[in-house]
UniProtKB/TrEMBL annotation:
Binds 2 Zn(2+) ions per subunit. GO terms for cellular component: cytoplasm. Belongs to the peptidase M20A family. It comes from the Eukaryota. Zn(2+) 2 binds at residues 78, 113, 338. This is N-acyl-aliphatic-L-amino acid amidohydrolase. Its EC number is 3.5.1.14. The gene is ACY1. PROSITE patterns: ARGE_DAPE_CPG2_2.
Length: 373
């Protein structure tokens, strides 16, 4: 009983000590325990509770379903939907007693959102993965606001780069020559001018999608210690996403040139530099593609083929020579992954299960290719 306290202790002290025992420190704070504690306090005091979900109409983890059947939650599009669709498609195939020619493996791998280094990138090199003898892989795609379904057969290479600009330090009241800031401005201009050109290419070509051009975004700037001190170094970081049609060696030579033009001793380093440009065949004579597209055609699904604009675990699968298609069967759905008010309509979700049931059945019936013999 709280009123008695612990061993005659004042109940307020006991409550204080109970709250202190909750581990709310980063990097892994137990906020759930803190919320349970505060909910209990509100109940004891007879106080109403108001939880603020900034930018969200509903609690992002409540899976609220509105009158139209739209289910709002983080992960509704990316990609808890596909997980459950796979599981339910397999459940239906098993219930029907279907015997498939190939083995179907469901893979649940961590860390895709933070680069996949401890997830799929490591797993594809593991003997357990090699033992699976994979012929083909399905992975996540994106929603499509129109009637069609988007299919991804390749993706852009993410390059995360930091450019270091050293310069002459000095007092903020003087015109010091060869400063870090002047070099930084030159570097920024080079990258952002290129960004404008690529944006213009995308906006003026009817046949280009985001995956067909290089995106450049300046994401971090670092430097300086005080208002009146000219810094000895300034850094700027960029997130680049490069399509498989670009010559990566030439592109890096261009970056070197921009650094050289900016001034002496300007250097760069990569936090991430993916070089694999494997794409999956979408030729009609390819057995995997013809089976995938044929199954879609039999369900009257219109497909739009694209290069994925961001990055998924497919890149690690393609890098070891396995064909992979990125596909989330979500048409008539605005693209809201990582966005506020992410939602998926229940009818679109349910149709996706039937789509995967047909696709898995068809793909698991593709005869052995000569390379697999």
């Amino acid at each position: 009983d709280l009123n008695k306290g612990q061993c005659g202790e004042d109940p307020s002290v006991s409550l204080f000590r109970e709250y202190l025992r909750l581990k709310t420190v980063h990097p892994d704070p137990d906020y759930d325990a803190a919320l349970r504690f505060l909910d209990r306090m509100a109940e004891e005091l007879g106080l109403p509770i108001k939880k603020i979900e900034e930018h969200w109409k509903y609690d992002a983890f409540s899976a609220f379903k509105d009158a139209e059947g739209n289910i709002y939650a983080r992960g509704s599009q990316d990609m808890k939907c596909v997980t459950i669709q796979y599981i339910q498609a397999i459940r239906r195939l098993k219930a029907e007693g279907r015997k498939l020619m190939r083995t179907v493996h469901l893979m649940f791998v961590p860390d895709e959102e933070v680069g996949g280094h401890k997830g799929m990138e490591t797993f594809v090199k593991h003997p357990e993965f090699q033992k699976l003898n994979i012929g083909f892989a399905l992975d996540e795609g994106l929603a499509n606001p129109g009637e069609a379904f988007t299919v991804f057969y390749g993706e852009r290479n993410p390059w995360w780069i930091t450019v270091h600009c050293p310069g002459s330090p000095g007092h903020g009241s003087r015109f010091v020559e060869n400063t870090a800031a002047e070099k930084l401005r030159h570097v920024m201009n080079s990258f952002l001018d290129f960004r404008e050109k690529e944006k213009h290419r995308l906006n003026t070509s009817e046949c280009f999608t985001l995956g067909d051009v290089t995106t450049v975004n300046m994401t971090m700037v670092k430097g300086g210690v005080a208002y009146n001190v000219i810094p000895a170094e300034m850094d700027v970081s960029f997130d680049l996403r490069i399509p498989p049609t670009v010559n990566l060696q030439e592109f890096e030579r261009q970056i070197k040139q921009w650094c050289k033009e900016a001034g002496e001793d300007v250097t760069y380093e990569f936090a991430q530099k993916h070089m694999n440009q494997n794409v999956t065949s979408t030729e009609e004579n390819d057995p995997w593609w013809s089976t995938f597209s044929g199954a879609c055609k039999s369900m009257n699904l219109t497909l739009e083929k694209e290069i994925f604009p961001a990055a998924t675990d497919s890149r690690f699968i393609r890098a070891v020579g396995i064909p992979a298609i990125g596909f989330s069967p979500m048409n008539r759905t605005p693209i809201l992954l990582h966005d506020h008010n992410e939602f998926l309509n229940e009818q679109v979700f349910l149709k996706g299960i039937s789509v995967f049931e047909r696709l898995i059945s068809a793909l698991a019936s593709v005869p052995a290719c000569p390379a697999e013999a």
